Amino acid sequence: MGxxxxxxxxxxxxxxGAQQRPNSIATTTNNNGGHNDAVEFFFRSRGIQPLFTxxxxxxxxxxxxxxxxxxxxxxxxxxxxxxxxxxLEELGRTEVVLNSxxxxxxxxxxxxxxxxxxxxxxxxxYDVDSKYxxxxxxxxxxxxxxxxxxxxxxxSEIVAKQTRSLTLNLNNKNGHTSLRNLGxxxxxxxxxxxxxxxxxxxxxxxxxxxxDLFSKSDPFLRISRIVESGGSVPICKTEVVKDNLNPxxxxxxxxxxxFGSKDNPLIIECFDFNSSGNHVLIGKLQKSVADLExxxxxxxxxxxxxxxxxxxxxxxxxxxxxxxxxxxxxxxSFLDYISSGFELNFMVAVDFTASNGNPWNPDSLxxxxxxxxxxxxxxxxxxxxxxxxxxxxxxxxxxxxxxxRTIDGTTSHCFNLNGSTGAFEVEGVxxxxxxxxxxxxNVALAGPTLFxxxxxxxxxxxxxxxxxxSSKYFFLLIxxxxxxxxxxxxxxxxxxxxxxxxxxxxxxxxxxxxxxMEVLDADNGRRLESSTGRVATRDIVQFVPMRxxxxxxxxxxxxxxxxxxxxxxxxxxxxxxxxxxLDAASTSA
Length: 589
Fold this sequence. Notes:
Blueprint (H helix, E strand, L loop, with lengths): L7 H4 L25 H8 L8 E10 L12 E8 L5 E6 L15 E5 L6 E8 L18 E9 H5 L5 E5 L14 E8 L5 E10 L12 E8 L5 E6 L14 E4 H4 L5 E8 L7 E9 H10 L2 E7 L6 E17 L3 H6 L3 E9 L24 H13 L7 E7 L1 E2 L5 E2 L2 E2 L8 E3 H15 L1 E2 L6 H17 L3 E9 L6 H11 L4 E7 L32 E5 H5 L5 H6 L2 H11 L6 H8 L1
Parallel strand pairs: 17-18, 17-24, 24-25, 25-26
Antiparallel strand pairs: 1-4, 1-8, 2-3, 2-5, 5-6, 7-8, 9-12, 9-16, 10-11, 10-13, 13-14, 15-16, 18-21, 18-22, 19-20, 19-23
Helix pairs in contact: 7-8, 9-10
């Protein structure tokens, strides 16, 4: 999450809020996680908006079949989300439009957009029998209505369009093509205004307890969102104020994607910073954004508390939190950029070192099962590629290998996966999969494991794009089975790349000890520093061992991709890059 840094200067900086320029790097983080029915029920049952970007979908149809004898059809549309098990979950229904084969429905259907997963949608259109016209559409039994047609798509296909509209031909149920024209359905998607909302606050504390022996405490705040399990997810950390028991922090900006609803409870913890990383809790309190707004209006403070040795009790402290400024504002969202023509370009690099094992041995990490069961490399490529491909218009993806001995007998740490000496791009996710399978026949596994050359190549492409097209952002997926041997060179490359429109996703496969790799990911609390002492301007690396993610309910895609919209926005905001004027106008509207 990039929630804190442990090098002394980096660790004292604010991170995680939706802070905008100038003078600071914006590092908003979307902590939505995966789609979870229990989470949604928890929030919906309390009237709280779910913690996802809300998409308002408008539907219209043309040339529908006429099922009525004396009049035209009375169509209604139903929108479903298709679950992993193939079951359909109803998201909403439109109203019934009387006597129309070309309806433009007014009732909108809200869909929760999650960047990190593929979200299949299914649309059914029905002709509602006239005897049901006085019954609320939500109570209609669909089996009693005449089916007019079905359309399917992925939500990313809609939101990635510059028009935010997608027209689909209607088919019979389950996608079976009809011999006659069943008409077409058009879906238009808009972010709800609340999805662009954020709150900006200036807070201070007074009379904090001193936790240091020879000086005063160095306090900072950490703000976390409470989840349905009772645990919490950190969403923001302020900078450290040195040697001060009455600190005033720089403005904190939280997006609605982070806090979900103004009534959603947040935990605000005040720590005394220690360079060792063992920060000491000074006190904490639980308040919603609405509570914080009330503190501002009433000009009152809220007392911090500490857990008491006596179970179930808390000690109320003298220290208090005050909200000096509070305002709500709108900011450009990830989808504002995507729908105005910004693209995400996918790149992949595959580890061909000998530690993967002989590819023809079933125990090898590179073994391709004739039965079609995917190995870890194939799974990572498919899962990440399937999400990102919708945001790249030409779907030509650079693909490399590293650590292998190529056909000319030399060991290369960045060779084209397709075997070409010139062209390094392949077509689509399937093109990556095919090139990977062919490379296993033509490349001998060797070593050592070096990331530097691949990162530098990706950074060169990202750097070149700035001069001729600032509407591209690049994602490099590195899949590896072992710890790198060029750690400092990799750090140097990453620090240089932190100024570029580039994020790097690293998946560790196999049973190796990846603890040393975690230093590359700011999640472990250490901001990267180059050999010359330069500190990375932002966190661009996300690392996860595949075995950890696949042992639970979260997929590798969700674990890797949930931070990418935040990294994308951090880059755009820090360089004052805005969506097109047309989209900006729609934002203010």
